[in-house]
Amino acid sequence: MLRRYAVLVLAAVFFAGSDAATGTKMPVLASSNPASVRSISTDKNHVVPNRFLLSESIAREDDEERGFGLKSIPGLQKLTSQFKTKITPGTLLNWANKEMSPDYVFLKLKLDKDGKQLFDNPDINVWAAYANAVVKSNPEEAMLTTLKARYSDDVLAKMFDAGKKVTQSNSVATKLQTQQMENWMAAKNKPNDVFKILLLDKVGNTILDNPMLSIWTNYMRFFNAKPENR
C-alpha cells in the first residue's frame, strides 16, 4: 500500500506547482490512511517523510499489480505539460529517494539559465516543491543558499520583489524574500546596514525613484515588527 502512496506523493509535487502556476485549486488526493501521507506543497509545514520516498521501480511494480500508475492519475499529463521542464514525476521521485540536493535539482531544471528572470519560469514551483519534500527543517534557507551562490544580495532582493508581482511565482518569491530578511536580521543588520546592502547609498538624488527603496522600507517594517527591536 505504501508503494502506491509514493506515486501519489510525487504527483502532488506537480499539482502543487500547477496550483501556483495556473491559479487553479489543487485537487486533494484521497488516502485510506491520511495520517501516513501528506501532500507536498510550497508550504514548509507539508513535508513528506523519508519512508515514503521509495524508488520509482518499486512504485511501478506495485502499480502494475494494482492497475494503478502515474499515467492513470487524472489530468497529470496535462498538468506536467504546463511546465517547461521535461522531467517526469518518476524522475523527481528517484532524486528524492537518492536525497539529491535542491542545488542539484536547480541545475537539472536548468533554472540557472534564466538569470534575473528566474521567477518568470513556472518550473520555480517544481523546484520549491522538491525542496519542501527533501529538506525538513528550512527549505527556503536551502533554496536561498543555492541562489546566493549565483546572485548578490541586492540582485536577489530585486528579483524577489519582481517575482512577487508574477502570479505563478508570488508564493515562492514572498517566502524567499522573507527568508532573506530573516537572514539579515540574524546577521544583526540594522536598516542602515541593509540600506548599503541594497546599494542605495550609491544612487544619490535619484533615490526616490529607485525601486530598491520600497524593498528597504519593507525591511524597516520587518525589523521594527520584531519585539527585540522595539
Describe this structure in words.
Belongs to the RxLR effector family. 53% of the residues lie in helices and 0% in strands. It is mainly α and 230 residues long. The protein has a domain at 2-138. It is globular, with a radius of gyration of 20 Å. The N and C termini lie far apart (53 Å).
Residue windows where pLDDT falls under 50 for at least 5 positions: 1-8, 13-18, 20-76
Biggest sheet: strands, sense, closure?
Answer: none
Strand content: under 5%
Radius of gyration: 20 Å
* Structural class by secondary-structure content: mainly alpha
So what's the overall shape? globular
Keywords: Secreted, Signal, Virulence
Subcellular location: Host cell; Secreted
Organism: Phytophthora cactorum
Family: Belongs to the RxLR effector family.
Task: Set down the secondary structure blueprint.
Blueprint: H1 2-22, H2 56-66, H3 76-80, H4 89-97, H5 102-108, H6 123-134, H7 139-148, H8 153-163, H9 170-186, H10 191-197, H11 212-224
Helix pairs in contact: 1-2, 1-4, 1-6, 6-7, 7-9, 8-9
Observed structural traits:
230 residues, mainly alpha, 0% strand, disordered N terminus, signal
